[in-house]
Design goal:
6-stranded mixed β-sheet; 15% helix; 2 domains; 5-stranded mixed β-sheet; transmembrane
């Protein structure tokens, strides 16, 4: 399964109770994999990207190409770009210098910090920070946007960076040191459905993202396909990712928003069954929760 399709799966395997009680903390703590090639998840930082008008000059570390670059604008928003993952201590120092109460740790391949290191903050303020994103035009590296005005006293931004993954957690109170332990091997998840709107699939050539149900369903049915509705549960603040609350054949309101479409497949050859899963919410959000931003950031060629 591709990185994009893993991202599509979002939080689908989690129970609704966990979604309601823990999804804010879990979504912040869950490791994000470094995108491959031109996979860009840059919507949030681009939308807020005003780095050209900085009040404090960029601070860089490392030799040759900067290991990291940290800037802060006149509004107290900090922008961080990281390329050398082993210089976590230097990045941590510069973040703190610019007003981010941060701890940054580096974990080698196959290792992680033993948890728990402290108490997770569940009510994370919207736009305090966005999940790490790839740097546009670069194969490796992460960037983040952090609003220093939204931290409460005693809170710490804990950023753990490894070879191929990164996690961000907001904690309160004392934070323990990173004690390295073996990381569990991730289980590959192969759902019985896949993205329907890319080339060669059931809805190739037709984009459904951010259309209303009333706009999307007629085109889908015109292609002889059946529709089921995946009712999405969105974590507080819409940080990216979603829970699958239920799947139903009963139509939802025509004014509901469609975020993506998946085709149901079966058999060893992943044969399409003619059923389309529409990922929908009653509320319209400021950015696509499936991708954490516009779909074009993930599929820049428009596929």
């Amino acid at each position: 399964m591709t990185t994009s399709e893993r991202r599509l799966a979002g939080f689908e395997e989690r129970q609704l109770a966990e979604l309601k009680e823990h999804i804010a903390a879990r979504s912040a703590a869950a490791p994000a994999r470094r995108p491959r090639g031109r996979l860009l998840l840059a919507a949030a930082a681009v939308a807020a990207g005003v780095c050209a008008a900085v009040a404090i000059p960029a601070v860089s570390g490392g030799g040759g190409e900067s290991a990291y670059a940290v800037t802060r604008d006149a509004n107290g928003v900090v922008y961080a770009e990281l390329r050398d993952f082993r210089d976590a201590a230097g990045l941590s120092d510069q973040l703190r210098r610019l007003g981010v109460p941060a701890i940054v740790d580096y974990t080698p391949e196959g290792k992680m910090c033993r948890e728990p290191r402290g108490k997770y903050v569940k009510d994370i303020p919207r736009d305090l920070y966005h999940v790490p994103e790839s740097i546009p035009g670069e194969k490796d590296g992460w960037r983040m946007r952090i609003d220093t005005r939204l931290f409460k006293p005693g809170q710490t931004f804990v950023w753990t960076i490894g070879e191929g993954s990164t996690s961000t957690i907001l904690m309160e109170g004392p934070v323990g040191p990173c004690e390295l332990v073996d990381a569990p091997k991730p289980k590959e998840y192969h759902p019985p459905y896949r993205l329907a709107t890319t080339k060669g699939r059931s809805l190739a050539g037709y984009r459904v993202d951010e259309k209303t149900v009333g706009e999307a369903v007629p085109e889908i049915e015109k292609r002889g396909l059946k529709v089921v509705y995946v009712i999405m549960g969105i974590p507080p603040g819409n940080p990216g990712g979603y829970g699958e609350l239920r799947v139903q054949k009963t139509p939802v309101g025509e004014d509901w928003t469609v975020w993506e479409a998946e085709e149901v497949i079966e058999g060893p050859k992943d044969t399409p069954t003619g059923v389309i899963r529409l990922l929908v919410t009653k509320e319209h959000y400021d950015r696509n929760p499936v991708y954490g931003g516009p779909r074009d950031a993930v599929f820049p060629d428009g596929s």
